[in-house]
Design brief:
Layout: H1 3-14, H2 19-32, H3 34-51, H4 53-70, H5 82-103, E1 112-115, H6 117-125, E2 130-134, H7 140-149, E3 155-159, H8 165-174, E4 181-185, H9 191-202, E5 206-210, E6 222-227, E7 230-235, H10 237-245, E8 249-257, E9 260-269, H11 279-300
Parallel strand pairs: 1-9, 2-5, 2-8, 3-4, 3-5
Antiparallel strand pairs: 6-7, 8-9
Helix pairs in contact: 2-3, 2-8, 3-5, 4-5, 5-7
């Protein structure tokens, strides 16, 4: 399967989380609160779990790969089956509900534990723009919202709207009054996009982009990097963007422990500007370093991996 076909496949899967379904969960939360919303999830997830063969198969592939990779340190005593996979789906669904709460502004700074935040805070106090590498491990929207909204720091989120049109539409509706958040739909990094983002960085704003997936129009702009014991595709795009923006770069992973979230800020570099002569090798090195961080947190929080597509498929 090619990278483009792979992306198209998970784009179609993502569409299963419809705008109507998210609207219903938002309505339940506003009327009856978080417990009622979580209770409703069991029925929604059960229906989706039974009907979504591909997503269920991808969940099991990931869980069993994690189990084999961890060996005697695996979080599961035996090879994960449907029960663990259903727990995986439930974790994802609760995270989706938390996204709604986050974008409504109902999470406060005191509701989250920040680790490695000092460097980021110093740069923000100095009005230095940053590039934030996020992922679909943990709560990606909590990463985005907290990175920008605590001190009214403008945040631009790069999204591939083709991947999640309904959730994008929902977040635009929910976050309509949050003037510090801007969402830019991009299928590729064009000169116009770069000019716009450079202006935002120069103004001390933040830019966030997911670094764990290949884009729909990625063509051959990816690297094959070992992840959980086997090769997977990782897009060059976020790291080409880091090179072009020439600004401080952080990775952020926001993981749930019990009822609290923990945000892990990792300062990567003041810049990921690469040497033109060794451009390909340096970009690959940056991607490999990021993937090591991704793997570390995936191992630490194995049920918070939310890529429900054949992640380890190779290009033809």
């Amino acid at each position: 399967m090619t990278s483009k076909k792979q992306s198209a496949q998970w784009s179609k899967m993502q569409e299963c989380g419809t705008f109507m379904g998210l609207s219903v969960m938002l309505w339940i939360y506003r009327i009856a609160g978080i417990r009622a919303m979580y209770f409703t999830l069991y029925f929604v997830v059960a229906f989706y779990f039974i009907g979504s063969t591909n997503a269920r198969r991808s969940s099991l592939e990931y869980l069993r790969r994690m189990h084999a990779y961890r060996g005697s340190a695996s979080p599961w005593k035996q090879r994960p089956g449907l029960r663990v996979s259903f727990a995986h789906f439930m974790t994802f669904a609760r995270c989706a509900c938390d996204k709604i709460i986050v974008w409504l502004g109902h999470y406060k700074p005191e509701d989250i534990t920040l680790t490695g935040y000092e460097k980021y805070q110093t740069l923000k106090d100095n009005k230095t723009g940053c590039l934030l590498l996020v992922s679909h491990l943990g709560n990606i929207d909590l990463c985005r919202a907290f990175a920008g909204s605590f001190k009214d720091i403008p945040l631009t989120i790069l999204v591939h709207n083709a991947h999640a049109p309904n959730f994008f539409k929902m977040m635009q509706k929910v976050a309509r009054k949050n003037t510090t958040i801007d969402m830019i739909e991009v299928s590729e990094i064009t000169p116009d996009v770069i000019i716009r983002l450079r202006e935002k960085i120069a103004a001390g704003e933040n830019v966030a982009i997911a670094a764990d997936r290949t884009a729909v129009e990625s063509d051959n702009r990816y690297e094959i990097i070992p992840f959980l014991g086997d090769d997977a595709l990782f897009a060059q795009g976020p790291f080409i963007l880091a090179d072009l923006l020439d600004c401080p770069v952080f990775s952020i992973f926001t993981m749930k422990e019990g009822q609290r979230y923990h945000a892990y800020f990792t300062y990567i570099a003041d810049t990921l500007k690469v040497d033109r002569k060794n451009r390909q090798q340096e970009i690959r090195s940056h991607i490999k370093s990021y993937v090591e961080h991704l793997e570390y947190y995936a191992v630490k929080y194995p049920l918070q991996w939310f890529n429900f597509y054949p992640y380890w498929n190779k290009p033809e």
